[in-house]
What does this fold into?
Amino acid sequence: MKGRVISGKEISASVRQKIAKDAREFEQATGVKPGLAVVIVGEDPASCVYVRNKEKGCAEVGFYSERHQLQAHASTEELLAKIEELKANEKIHGILVQLPLPRQIDEKAVVSAIPPEMDVDGFHPENVGRLLLGEARFLPCTPAGIMKMLEYAHISVAGKECVVVGRSNIVGKPLAMLLLQANATVTICHSQTKNLPDVTRRADILIAAVGKAHFITADMVKEGAVVIDVGINRLANGKLAGDVDFDAVAPKTSAITPVPGGVGVMTITMLLENTLKAAQCQIERKNPDRTSFY
Ligand code: NAP
It folds into this structure.
Protein backbone atom coordinates (compact mmCIF):
# COMPACT_ATOMS: atom_id res chain seq x y z
CA MET A 1 0.00 0.00 0.00
CA LYS A 2 1.32 3.45 -0.92
CA GLY A 3 0.21 6.12 1.53
CA ARG A 4 -1.49 9.22 0.22
CA VAL A 5 0.32 12.33 1.35
CA ILE A 6 -1.81 14.69 3.43
CA SER A 7 -0.65 18.12 2.37
CA GLY A 8 -0.62 20.68 5.18
CA LYS A 9 0.07 23.30 2.51
CA GLU A 10 -3.12 22.57 0.60
CA ILE A 11 -5.32 22.30 3.69
CA SER A 12 -3.77 25.48 5.08
CA ALA A 13 -4.44 27.39 1.90
CA SER A 14 -8.09 26.47 2.09
CA VAL A 15 -8.41 27.25 5.84
CA ARG A 16 -6.54 30.56 5.41
CA GLN A 17 -8.92 31.62 2.63
CA LYS A 18 -11.80 31.15 5.03
CA ILE A 19 -9.98 33.03 7.81
CA ALA A 20 -9.23 35.93 5.42
CA LYS A 21 -12.88 36.09 4.38
CA ASP A 22 -14.13 36.01 7.99
CA ALA A 23 -11.57 38.67 8.96
CA ARG A 24 -12.74 40.96 6.12
CA GLU A 25 -16.37 40.57 7.18
CA PHE A 26 -15.44 41.18 10.81
CA GLU A 27 -13.55 44.34 9.87
CA GLN A 28 -16.44 45.58 7.73
CA ALA A 29 -18.85 45.02 10.62
CA THR A 30 -16.70 46.48 13.40
CA GLY A 31 -13.90 48.56 11.85
CA VAL A 32 -11.44 46.35 13.72
CA LYS A 33 -8.59 44.39 12.13
CA PRO A 34 -7.53 41.33 14.14
CA GLY A 35 -4.08 42.08 15.59
CA LEU A 36 -1.30 39.79 16.78
CA ALA A 37 1.83 40.77 18.73
CA VAL A 38 4.75 38.37 18.67
CA VAL A 39 7.50 38.83 21.23
CA ILE A 40 10.86 37.21 20.67
CA VAL A 41 13.80 37.23 23.08
CA GLY A 42 17.23 36.85 21.49
CA GLU A 43 18.02 35.76 17.98
CA ASP A 44 17.77 31.97 17.90
CA PRO A 45 17.71 31.24 14.15
CA ALA A 46 14.87 28.68 14.30
CA SER A 47 12.73 31.01 16.44
CA CYS A 48 13.41 33.89 14.02
CA VAL A 49 12.17 31.75 11.11
CA TYR A 50 9.00 30.80 13.03
CA VAL A 51 8.32 34.43 13.92
CA ARG A 52 8.82 35.57 10.32
CA ASN A 53 6.40 32.89 9.12
CA LYS A 54 3.83 34.03 11.69
CA GLU A 55 4.16 37.63 10.44
CA LYS A 56 3.81 36.45 6.83
CA GLY A 57 0.73 34.44 7.79
CA CYS A 58 -0.84 37.54 9.38
CA ALA A 59 -0.18 39.60 6.24
CA GLU A 60 -1.65 36.85 4.05
CA VAL A 61 -5.03 36.89 5.83
CA GLY A 62 -5.14 40.67 6.30
CA PHE A 63 -4.33 40.87 10.02
CA TYR A 64 -2.38 43.61 11.77
CA SER A 65 0.83 42.33 13.38
CA GLU A 66 3.67 43.67 15.48
CA ARG A 67 7.00 42.06 16.27
CA HIS A 68 8.78 43.00 19.51
CA GLN A 69 12.39 41.91 19.76
CA LEU A 70 14.06 41.85 23.17
CA GLN A 71 17.76 41.29 23.69
CA ALA A 72 18.98 37.79 24.57
CA HIS A 73 19.94 38.96 28.10
CA ALA A 74 16.52 40.54 28.79
CA SER A 75 15.10 39.87 32.26
CA THR A 76 11.75 38.38 33.26
CA GLU A 77 10.72 41.87 34.45
CA GLU A 78 11.47 43.41 31.06
CA LEU A 79 9.43 40.76 29.30
CA LEU A 80 6.55 41.14 31.77
CA ALA A 81 6.63 44.92 31.20
CA LYS A 82 6.41 44.33 27.44
CA ILE A 83 3.35 42.11 27.96
CA GLU A 84 1.74 44.83 30.12
CA GLU A 85 2.34 47.34 27.32
CA LEU A 86 0.81 45.02 24.71
CA LYS A 87 -2.22 44.27 26.90
CA ALA A 88 -3.07 47.97 26.76
CA ASN A 89 -2.61 48.25 22.99
CA GLU A 90 -6.03 48.58 21.33
CA LYS A 91 -4.74 47.16 18.05
CA ILE A 92 -3.62 43.89 19.64
CA HIS A 93 -5.99 40.99 20.37
CA GLY A 94 -3.52 38.13 20.60
CA ILE A 95 -0.12 38.01 22.32
CA LEU A 96 2.40 35.29 21.62
CA VAL A 97 5.79 34.96 23.29
CA GLN A 98 8.03 32.77 21.15
CA LEU A 99 9.31 29.78 23.14
CA PRO A 100 11.77 28.53 24.23
CA LEU A 101 12.96 31.51 26.28
CA PRO A 102 16.52 32.07 27.49
CA ARG A 103 17.29 30.34 30.81
CA GLN A 104 17.27 33.50 32.95
CA ILE A 105 13.59 34.09 32.16
CA ASP A 106 10.83 32.61 34.29
CA GLU A 107 8.76 31.00 31.53
CA LYS A 108 5.86 30.09 33.82
CA ALA A 109 5.51 33.69 35.02
CA VAL A 110 5.55 34.91 31.42
CA VAL A 111 2.97 32.40 30.16
CA SER A 112 0.69 33.22 33.11
CA ALA A 113 1.02 36.99 32.52
CA ILE A 114 -0.67 36.84 29.12
CA PRO A 115 -4.39 37.36 29.72
CA PRO A 116 -6.21 34.07 28.94
CA GLU A 117 -8.41 35.84 26.37
CA MET A 118 -5.28 37.02 24.49
CA ASP A 119 -3.40 33.72 24.86
CA VAL A 120 -3.56 32.60 21.22
CA ASP A 121 -1.00 29.83 21.84
CA GLY A 122 -3.37 28.28 24.41
CA PHE A 123 -0.58 27.81 26.98
CA HIS A 124 -2.02 29.80 29.92
CA PRO A 125 -2.90 27.46 32.83
CA GLU A 126 -6.54 28.56 32.64
CA ASN A 127 -6.72 27.64 28.94
CA VAL A 128 -4.95 24.33 29.58
CA GLY A 129 -7.52 23.55 32.30
CA ARG A 130 -10.37 24.47 29.98
CA LEU A 131 -8.97 22.15 27.33
CA LEU A 132 -8.89 19.30 29.83
CA LEU A 133 -12.52 19.96 30.73
CA GLY A 134 -13.55 19.95 27.07
CA GLU A 135 -14.38 23.67 27.24
CA ALA A 136 -11.43 25.05 25.31
CA ARG A 137 -11.21 28.76 24.56
CA PHE A 138 -8.13 28.48 22.35
CA LEU A 139 -6.81 25.12 21.23
CA PRO A 140 -3.00 24.91 21.25
CA CYS A 141 -1.98 25.44 17.64
CA THR A 142 -0.05 22.27 16.74
CA PRO A 143 -2.59 19.78 18.16
CA ALA A 144 -5.44 21.84 16.67
CA GLY A 145 -3.67 21.78 13.29
CA ILE A 146 -3.34 18.00 13.45
CA MET A 147 -7.04 17.57 14.24
CA LYS A 148 -7.90 19.90 11.35
CA MET A 149 -5.69 17.89 8.97
CA LEU A 150 -7.42 14.66 9.98
CA GLU A 151 -10.81 16.29 9.48
CA TYR A 152 -9.93 17.66 6.02
CA ALA A 153 -8.45 14.29 5.02
CA HIS A 154 -11.75 12.62 6.11
CA ILE A 155 -9.94 10.44 8.64
CA SER A 156 -12.28 9.69 11.51
CA VAL A 157 -10.63 9.10 14.88
CA ALA A 158 -13.66 7.79 16.79
CA GLY A 159 -13.02 4.28 18.04
CA LYS A 160 -9.50 4.18 16.55
CA GLU A 161 -6.32 3.18 18.37
CA CYS A 162 -4.26 6.39 18.46
CA VAL A 163 -0.68 6.28 19.71
CA VAL A 164 1.06 9.57 20.47
CA VAL A 165 4.84 9.36 20.89
CA GLY A 166 5.88 12.35 23.00
CA ARG A 167 4.24 13.93 26.05
CA SER A 168 5.24 17.59 25.91
CA ASN A 169 2.86 20.25 27.20
CA ILE A 170 2.64 21.89 23.78
CA VAL A 171 2.13 18.84 21.55
CA GLY A 172 1.81 15.33 23.03
CA LYS A 173 -0.41 15.93 26.07
CA PRO A 174 -2.92 18.36 24.52
CA LEU A 175 -3.11 16.28 21.34
CA ALA A 176 -3.88 13.15 23.36
CA MET A 177 -6.67 15.10 25.06
CA LEU A 178 -8.18 16.25 21.76
CA LEU A 179 -8.04 12.71 20.35
CA LEU A 180 -9.71 11.42 23.50
CA GLN A 181 -12.44 14.05 23.20
CA ALA A 182 -12.93 12.87 19.61
CA ASN A 183 -13.55 9.36 21.01
CA ALA A 184 -10.26 7.70 20.09
CA THR A 185 -8.61 5.14 22.34
CA VAL A 186 -5.37 6.93 23.17
CA THR A 187 -1.95 5.71 24.30
CA ILE A 188 0.80 8.21 25.14
CA CYS A 189 4.42 7.04 24.86
CA HIS A 190 7.60 8.67 26.13
CA SER A 191 11.26 7.95 26.76
CA GLN A 192 10.46 5.44 29.53
CA THR A 193 7.95 3.43 27.47
CA LYS A 194 8.94 -0.22 27.28
CA ASN A 195 8.85 -2.07 23.95
CA LEU A 196 7.91 1.05 22.02
CA PRO A 197 7.62 -0.67 18.61
CA ASP A 198 5.06 -3.12 20.08
CA VAL A 199 2.97 -0.15 21.17
CA THR A 200 3.33 1.91 17.99
CA ARG A 201 2.45 -1.13 15.85
CA ARG A 202 -0.98 -1.17 17.53
CA ALA A 203 -1.77 2.28 16.16
CA ASP A 204 -4.43 2.93 13.55
CA ILE A 205 -3.23 6.52 13.81
CA LEU A 206 0.36 7.09 14.91
CA ILE A 207 1.57 10.56 15.84
CA ALA A 208 5.28 11.23 16.28
CA ALA A 209 6.29 14.26 18.39
CA VAL A 210 9.70 13.22 19.63
CA GLY A 211 12.24 15.64 18.14
CA LYS A 212 14.55 12.96 16.70
CA ALA A 213 15.04 12.72 12.94
CA HIS A 214 13.76 9.50 11.33
CA PHE A 215 12.99 8.01 14.75
CA ILE A 216 9.88 6.12 13.57
CA THR A 217 11.00 3.34 11.26
CA ALA A 218 8.94 1.04 9.04
CA ASP A 219 9.00 -1.85 11.54
CA MET A 220 7.22 0.37 14.09
CA VAL A 221 4.20 0.96 11.85
CA LYS A 222 1.18 -1.25 11.19
CA GLU A 223 0.24 -1.88 7.55
CA GLY A 224 -2.41 0.68 6.54
CA ALA A 225 -1.89 3.03 9.49
CA VAL A 226 -2.21 6.83 9.28
CA VAL A 227 1.06 8.51 10.31
CA ILE A 228 1.29 12.13 11.42
CA ASP A 229 4.79 13.56 11.69
CA VAL A 230 5.13 16.55 14.03
CA GLY A 231 8.93 16.58 14.21
CA ILE A 232 11.01 19.39 12.77
CA ASN A 233 14.68 18.43 12.89
CA ARG A 234 17.57 20.17 11.16
CA LEU A 235 19.99 17.67 9.59
CA ALA A 236 23.73 18.25 9.30
CA ASN A 237 23.24 19.05 5.59
CA GLY A 238 20.87 21.89 6.54
CA LYS A 239 17.72 20.10 5.34
CA LEU A 240 14.63 19.64 7.50
CA ALA A 241 13.52 16.15 8.50
CA GLY A 242 10.59 14.84 10.44
CA ASP A 243 10.55 12.25 13.22
CA VAL A 244 9.40 9.64 10.70
CA ASP A 245 11.61 7.85 8.19
CA PHE A 246 9.25 9.00 5.44
CA ASP A 247 10.61 7.03 2.47
CA ALA A 248 10.57 3.71 4.32
CA VAL A 249 7.33 4.29 6.24
CA ALA A 250 5.09 5.86 3.55
CA PRO A 251 4.59 2.64 1.53
CA LYS A 252 3.13 0.91 4.61
CA THR A 253 0.64 3.66 5.43
CA SER A 254 -2.80 4.59 4.17
CA ALA A 255 -1.95 8.27 4.70
CA ILE A 256 1.06 10.22 5.94
CA THR A 257 2.07 13.85 6.47
CA PRO A 258 5.33 15.18 5.00
CA VAL A 259 8.02 17.39 6.55
CA PRO A 260 8.17 20.15 5.47
CA GLY A 261 4.71 20.96 4.15
CA GLY A 262 2.79 19.04 6.79
CA VAL A 263 1.95 19.86 10.39
CA GLY A 264 4.24 22.92 10.61
CA VAL A 265 2.26 25.10 8.22
CA MET A 266 -1.00 24.06 9.91
CA THR A 267 0.35 25.26 13.25
CA ILE A 268 0.61 28.82 11.96
CA THR A 269 -2.80 28.59 10.34
CA MET A 270 -4.36 27.65 13.67
CA LEU A 271 -2.58 30.58 15.29
CA LEU A 272 -4.33 32.83 12.76
CA GLU A 273 -7.66 31.17 13.56
CA ASN A 274 -7.08 31.77 17.28
CA THR A 275 -6.16 35.41 16.66
CA LEU A 276 -9.39 36.01 14.74
CA LYS A 277 -11.33 34.33 17.54
CA ALA A 278 -9.55 36.48 20.14
CA ALA A 279 -10.50 39.65 18.25
CA GLN A 280 -14.10 38.50 17.86
CA CYS A 281 -14.44 37.62 21.57
CA GLN A 282 -12.88 40.86 22.77
CA ILE A 283 -15.02 43.07 20.55
CA GLU A 284 -18.10 41.08 21.45
CA ARG A 285 -17.36 41.51 25.15
CA LYS A 286 -17.06 45.28 24.66
CA ASN A 287 -20.32 45.32 22.65
CA PRO A 288 -22.52 42.68 24.29
CA ASP A 289 -25.58 43.74 22.26
CA ARG A 290 -24.02 42.78 18.93
CA THR A 291 -24.87 39.53 17.22
CA SER A 292 -22.17 36.87 17.63
CA PHE A 293 -19.32 37.11 15.12
CA TYR A 294 -18.54 33.41 15.16
P1 NAP B 1 9.91 17.81 23.62
O1 NAP B 1 9.31 18.75 24.61
O2 NAP B 1 11.38 17.67 23.55
O3 NAP B 1 9.28 16.37 23.90
C1 NAP B 1 9.75 15.24 23.25
C2 NAP B 1 9.01 14.04 23.75
O4 NAP B 1 9.56 12.90 23.09
C3 NAP B 1 9.17 13.80 25.25
O5 NAP B 1 7.93 13.51 25.83
C4 NAP B 1 10.11 12.63 25.34
O6 NAP B 1 9.86 11.77 26.44
C5 NAP B 1 9.79 11.89 24.07
N1 NAP B 1 10.92 11.04 23.69
C6 NAP B 1 12.22 11.41 23.57
N2 NAP B 1 12.97 10.33 23.25
C7 NAP B 1 12.12 9.28 23.17
C8 NAP B 1 12.30 7.90 22.89
N3 NAP B 1 13.51 7.38 22.65
N4 NAP B 1 11.20 7.12 22.91
C9 NAP B 1 9.98 7.61 23.15
N5 NAP B 1 9.76 8.92 23.43
C10 NAP B 1 10.82 9.73 23.44
O7 NAP B 1 9.43 18.11 22.15
P2 NAP B 1 8.14 18.87 21.55
O8 NAP B 1 8.19 20.30 21.89
O9 NAP B 1 6.90 18.09 21.85
O10 NAP B 1 8.47 18.71 20.00
C11 NAP B 1 8.61 17.46 19.38
C12 NAP B 1 9.02 17.67 17.94
O11 NAP B 1 8.00 18.37 17.27
C13 NAP B 1 10.28 18.52 17.75
O12 NAP B 1 10.95 18.07 16.59
C14 NAP B 1 9.74 19.91 17.51
O13 NAP B 1 10.61 20.71 16.73
C15 NAP B 1 8.51 19.58 16.73
N6 NAP B 1 7.43 20.58 16.81
C16 NAP B 1 6.83 20.87 15.66
C17 NAP B 1 5.79 21.75 15.64
C18 NAP B 1 5.11 22.01 14.36
O14 NAP B 1 4.47 23.03 14.22
N7 NAP B 1 5.21 21.10 13.40
C19 NAP B 1 5.38 22.38 16.82
C20 NAP B 1 6.00 22.04 18.01
C21 NAP B 1 7.05 21.12 17.99
P3 NAP B 1 10.09 12.23 27.98
O15 NAP B 1 8.92 13.09 28.30
O16 NAP B 1 10.11 10.96 28.73
O17 NAP B 1 11.39 12.98 28.01
Remarks:
- The longest strand covers residues 35-41.
- The chain has two domains: 30-115, 141-264.
